[in-house]
């Protein structure tokens, strides 16, 4: 529940309502100002500005309980909403999900207004029995996926949404919904359409819902709804587990942006700036296995040079000052180059890579190759590392091992 607004704090902008002002604002406002808001032709624009400011505030102030944070931490680094999760990652998520389900969240989630709204799908399991409609949505890795729940209307609905981008639009598949009990929502998909930004009308999505029969019907149990209304765990009639969030923490938003491939540089700059403002101490080159997720430059040299300069593959950092780059080639062959790192500044390291080989099984073929460059740590924690390396290229790496002890 939002804290009360005091005179020393800025007003909570979410308390404003622009529907005839039938609801009393939670902070004082003069009649003159009120008449201006009510009558001005700029009300719509102001509403959009306030919504944007409020969204920015919310994005900076996401709080989770200790148990909820364990689930969020387990989700960070899992790509494709679970499609490419390792066995250890799946175990960590399932353990965190079970811990939350055993706790007392909102006792009657289907009766709570906190279940209403747009939820972003962060993770899902994929049993082989998943319905065709479900597979359509959970299988789209390069776009954001959302679920809208609106039960307190004359036309209760649950909708699945694939958002292509802000510039292109989205696909929404809607289902008529009803509440069965304190946890379960019944639904039946009945319509779908594309909403493109460049078209003034919706384009129907050709799905013969009536012919799908029971495949168009299902139910959704909410097994955990957080007291803050930010986190939800649901299980479907096909045995699928869903983890959804209304608000995401900064690392989740950065990874989501990288997965879409749009505005990544701006997102990285904002993320680094945000963490610098939080006063986080100087980062360290942590040991462990790190998979390259994104770089600011495409590979332009030969693949051997790209691999030697860290523009592809995995990096293995050891505590004894050794570092290795490993790239899978094909048919079980790998390229490996080993080197050393020496700290040369507060956040900089000198990297020397000089022991390269093509490896197949127990055999290796030496390659004459050397690479030297300076590595600057822009951000690092147990999950994500952002660096500026060879040729001033910015890299984002994800940690892929459990403990990093190699």
UniProtKB/TrEMBL annotation:
<dbReference type="InterPro" id="IPR006843">
    <property type="entry name" value="PAP/fibrillin_dom"/>
</dbReference>
<dbReference type="Pfam" id="PF04755">
    <property type="entry name" value="PAP_fibrillin"/>
</dbReference>
<comment type="similarity">
    <text>Belongs to the PAP/fibrillin family.</text>
</comment>
<keyword id="KW-0809">Transit peptide</keyword>
<protein>
    <recommendedName>
        <fullName>Plastid lipid-associated protein/fibrillin conserved domain-containing protein</fullName>
    </recommendedName>
</protein>
<feature type="domain" description="Plastid lipid-associated protein/fibrillin conserved">
    <location>
        <begin position="68"/>
        <end position="244"/>
    </location>
</feature>
<dbReference type="GO" id="GO:0009536">
    <property type="term" value="C:plastid"/>
</dbReference>
<dbReference type="InterPro" id="IPR039633">
    <property type="entry name" value="PAP"/>
</dbReference>
<keyword id="KW-0934">Plastid</keyword>
